Amino acid sequence: MKKLFLLVAILLTASCGSSDCDFILENDVSGAIDTSLLADLVGNDATALVTLNGESARTFTSEALIGDEISYEIKTSLSNVEIVIINFFYTSGNQEFWKTGIERTIEIESSPATASLKVLRGAVGDEVKFGFTFVLKTDGVIDFNTTYIVDPKIRVRS
């Protein structure tokens, strides 16, 4: 029995090289913003001020397989200020994919607050532009009176 188990383990490992097997992944999207620039912002669209994984949020696209979960976190340079994502919303693209193919999870009470999207279903190439709303948490107090939005994309990959 041990030999059979070992043989199966070896076959699985050998047949699953790094370039030809896809595994469900947790993707972390790490963002950054200079919160001092928010004071001069006209309106509440902060997309131009945010980078996601080093790229402008305006052009950033998360690519995911079915089953992947993508966590979003925006950091500031201030130790007493946290960005808290409070909402995900649809802006354009495949609306059915957004409604039924993506699970949205937001935990604002955790520290740090967490926000993620999980791709439940969809076809290769399905894409949606979405937005998320965020607020500032300064010295542990969340300011829900002033909200900002950012609008990246998500796409199903093969």
Sum up the structure in keywords.
158 residues; mainly beta; disordered N terminus
Strand line-up across the major sheet: 3-2-1-5-8-7
Question: What's the average pLDDT?
Answer: 86
The secondary-structure element order is: HEEEEEEHEEEEE
State the fourth-level CATH superfamily.
Answer: Inclusion body protein
What is this structure, in a nutshell?
The protein is mainly beta and 158 residues long.
List the topology elements.
Layout: H1 2-15, E1 26-32, E2 51-52, E3 55-56, E4 61-64, E5 69-75, E6 81-93, H2 95-101, E7 102-107, E8 114-119, E9 127-138, E10 141-150, E11 153-156
Parallel strand pairs: 1-5, 4-11
Antiparallel strand pairs: 1-2, 2-3, 5-8, 6-9, 7-8, 9-10, 9-11
Plain-language structure description:
This protein starts with a helix and ends with a strand. It contains 2 helices and 11 strands; from the N terminus they run αββββββαβββββ. With 158 residues, the chain is mainly β. Strands 3-2-1-5-8-7 form a 6-stranded mixed sheet. Strands 4, 6, 9, 10 and 11 form a 5-stranded mixed sheet that branches. A hairpin with a 2-residue loop joins strand 2 and strand 3. The chain has helices spanning 2-15, 95-101; strands spanning 26-32, 51-52, 55-56, 61-64, 69-75, 81-93, 102-107, 114-119, 127-138, 141-150, 153-156. It is globular, with a radius of gyration of 19 Å. The model is unreliable at 1-24 (pLDDT under 50). The longest helix has 14 residues, at 2-15. It has a single domain (25-156), classed as Sandwich (Immunoglobulin-like).
